């Protein structure tokens, strides 16, 4: 979710671009149906951990794992691309970041990539390689990267009746390019959501995944400052939001190369979001 982010405020507003995180009491009572990704998985495979529905059955929201002695941290990367950015990619703008992915592999860092369906269509080979690499897991960041609330930092908005379809369209794009078993996790574009959006996605059966540490890598030019923001913010169970789009987040590879050894030196272990969610449910 490329936006002008800097650091978490007291209400989790994300600098100049990531959405304020609101949570409200919702209302439906039905258990959610399986996410499209889960229904496509092999019946013999263990289902990915998800959170139980929130109050009154709405889409649950996950922000961080247990604050336990087990010092785990999840690095998450948003692979952003909107439905109208194809011409910019054709003209040379880099919405991908192969160097970052190579660095994660070199450093053996598990990670969760929140991918838009449009990104997967633009970079099918990379999407497929990420999705089939056991080091990574692919999760849903919408198809079009349009906002699920009004007034979300200038992003176009998805109509309420189209929200679920937008999420399912992204899963369909993943399957089409060969991403197997995308996770039933969804990250709202811009980080913006409200009760209406949570209600609209209840039938999709996804767990909404937010974060508790903002890297500030979007549009940043000082990798050292971004890395320090991450190091200052990480606690056991943290979810860190970064980006996998070179033109809009050019420092991220350097940030990762600095942050990973320092956090490992402090005793942290890198995990995927699925492991944190499993721990939150008492599963390891």
Any descriptors?
284 residues, alpha/beta, six-stranded parallel β-sheet, three-stranded parallel β-sheet, 10 helices, globular, disordered N terminus
β-strand amount: 5-15%
Structural class: alpha/beta
**Helix-strand pattern, N to C?**
HEEHHEHHEHEHEEHEHEH
Number of helices: 10
**What share of the residues lie within helices?**
25-40%
The N- to C-terminal Cα distance equals 29 Å
Rg calc: 17 Å
The 3D shape can be described as globular
| Average pLDDT reading | 87
Number of strands: 9
Largest sheet: 6 strands, parallel
- Low-confidence spans: 3-34, 37-44
Region (Disordered): 30-64
GO biological process, one term: carbohydrate metabolic process
Domain NodB homology: 71-271
Keywords: Signal
Give structural notes.
Residues 36-49 have a biased composition (Low complexity). With 284 residues, this protein is an alpha/beta fold. It is 32% helix and 12% strand. The chain has helices at residues 36-40, 86-90, 98-107, 117-122, 124-132, 163-177, 195-201, 223-233, 252-265, 273-280; strands at 61-62, 72-79, 111-115, 136-140, 185-186, 207-209, 213-214, 238-243, 269-270. The strands form two sheets. Strands 2, 3, 4, 7, 8 and 9 form a six-stranded parallel β-sheet that branches. A three-stranded parallel β-sheet has the order 1-6-5, with no helix packed on it. α7 links the parallel β5 (185-186) and β6. α3 runs parallel beside α9 (252-265) and α8 packs parallel to α9 (252-265). The longest helix has 15 residues, at 163-177. The protein starts with 35 loop residues before the first helix and ends with a helix.
